[in-house]
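Usage

Read records sequentially. Each one opens with the input sequence:
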Amino acid sequence: MGRGKLRIHLGAAPGVGKTYAMLAEAHRRAERGTDCVVAFVETHGRPRTEALLTGLEQVPYRTLERGRVTVAEMDLDAVLARRPRVALVDELAHTNAPGSRNAKRWQDVEELLAAGIDVLSTVGIQHLESLGDTVESITGVRERETVPDEVVRRADQVELVDMTPEALRRRMAHGNIHQPDQVDAALSSYFRPGNLAALRELALLWVADRVDAHLQRYRSEHAVSAIWGSRERIVVGLTGGPEGRTLIRRAARLAEKGAGGQLLAVYISRSDGLTSASPGELAAQRTLVEDLGGSFHHVVGDDIPAALLDFARGANATQIVLGSSRRRTWQYVLGPGVGATVARDCGPDLDVHIVTHEEAAKGRGLPVARGAPLGRLRLAWGWAVGTAGPVLLAVLLTAFDPGLAIDMLMFLAVTVAAALLGGLAPALASAAVGSLLLNFLFTPPLHTWTVADPRNIVAIVVFVAVGASVASVVDLAARRTQQAARLRAESEILSFLAGNVLRGETGLEDLLERVRETFGMESAALLERAGDVEPWTCAGRVGRGRPVERPEDADVEVPVGDDMALALTGRVPPAEDRRVLAAFAAQAAVVLDRRRLREQADRALALAEGNRIRTALLAAVSHDLRTPLAGIKAAVSSLRSEDVEWSDEDRAELLEGIEDGADRLDHLVGNLLDMSRLHTGTVTPLIRGTDLDEVVPRALGGVPEDSVALDVPETLPMVDADPGLLERAMANVIENAVKYSPPGQKVLVAASALAGRVEVRVVDRGPGVPDEAKERIFAPFQRHGDAPRGAGVGLGLAVARGFTEAMGGTLNADDTPGGGLTMTLTLHAATARPEDGPREGTHDGPREGTRAPVAARDERRVP
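and closes with the structure output:
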């Protein structure tokens, strides 16, 4: 049996009805006699969705225990055993509960498809992995359940389930999506009109791109060369000249007039690398194209009109924008020009726009072939052989007189040798000197410049032509070899840019240092300014050369747009280096933008974290602090009441309640102050050698007696720590473990040393914490499970980890073998070791520890 087919209902936003659409499709197929079953559907309690389940066979769900909660998951084995023709699997991005065969539901769907079962599924646009950051920036909510885009792209059918923002908000207001008590909050946050419109645009663009990819694949498979104008695609041809910006802006306006218009800029260079384009101007034009929402392409082709038309047809373009020729009138004798040739050969399916500009008919410089230099020593040897070689050879041949034919072959050999060493110019010099010597010394009549035999004239002319031709070929081969080596070096540099820089692995200073070393410069700097009249500022600089305040003060300036430039000092590089320099300059601008965006993101994250802390702090103050205050107030009011005669037992009970409330207030305020110190960076630990067997027992004052067993050997090395911070951290962790330990089960506090580190393990036998929550329990204001609100504000473990990290240590949570949680606090061992022998107040082995009371700490909590 072949692979099953996957049909996905893609929702433009939560609540648009993708599950409803999937169930409706199942009913249509069932009416046609197709065997359809419901493998898993989540109705979210919506009556109209639940009504559509009627009449469809449902495979019983599989129940799993997730902590104290029972969750229902799709029974994959039961569906495979039932083997229907079509299976309905809702929420493709869902994360399966621990204990399931696969981590994600889309992996379950892959197994069903591999078994030959067709699948109907649903997924929201917000759950696509590539759009996670975009969705978070729009809605402020990070979707933790995602599905790889490729899974959705591989689907045989993708149906967009869409709804206008206004209609969706009406559905929300009528209670068709969320419960009535959640409607107001949803409408004012996630379901704002702007959010819904942006999500809808994301969905439409994603589906449009997928349709476009299918169209391109169809055209390729069926060899369709004709242009299908399904959407306006404007190709603008660039020459690297100053008119390029005018053409780009004109093409952008044309693209904006059509629905879904697309702008593609293409620069075509010759395969021999000869070009008259300005690298700086090309970089500026690339930036302009990208700013206008288009894409820049670099194509190699010797026949520029043909290459431009091939690119346009390959991109399914509908229009081509070209500039008026910069040729002068006499230059049209050389040919009709690119614009006229493209307009003649484009055919009826392409429109060509010729745009006038200020540079039209002003002339343009033709590219000049400049080969790579062969080196001074090699040129010197070439000129020596080309000029002195024929003279020495003439002296030698005069002595032996082998005959005119051999004389000409020997002179030709010297010419080839001069070409191999020095290139074309020494070879031509050798041919000229050799022909003169042949005529004067070896061609009758001898020692005159006349030639009696016409055949000798032909022989000398052929000698000169063969010598020049061979020299030209040898010179071209040598220069091509040198050029290939240079291009290889350039490709390695560009590979470095494409790899390290684009992946964000290189900083601005590292990139500038690479530029300086590659081109042998004294210094490299990236300069920028806010506007045309603003002064230049230095964004980054490396090297020891003179400081450059303006681009024009540098030895070489590579502009990046209008307000940024790469400035280098030390020497003036050859023109062929500017292409790679332009690539470096463009990437330096990208690195600078990335660094600033990262800084802005860090500031925004810090601001958001501060807002979250303040919000949680207000919530804590409003409840957890008010509760003990209310108890204290009630007890004091009762004691002061003159209407009631309190017995000694009642009075003692009320005083005990006041004391308990005050202790709770002291604990909460202490943790709040500790957390505020951590977040403001005012915790400055006093690190010194500290004995664990002196600090740990003092941390047991907040727990009942006989609830902790200590195993802290006195032979342990000292640790680098602040005794006060270490005691507070240990007290929080130990009290947290005691709260969650079963009655009668002691918490074990054990310490050991290993490889320059000392570990303190706090082991309890409580219910433990799931793997996905082990990091969240250290976040501020988090509660785990059903911890009562009166138990604290959820700061104990956050404070403990903060103090531990401030001392250069770590605090992590792991499972206790057999059940429970083990907190491991790791610190660096001090260089100084404790004195040998027992110290006062310490002893080995497990022991019961109680000391003076310290502030009680909060328990482990996550949402």
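Summary fields computed downstream for this record:
- The first strand starts at residue 6 and ends at 11.
- The radius of gyration is 41 Å.
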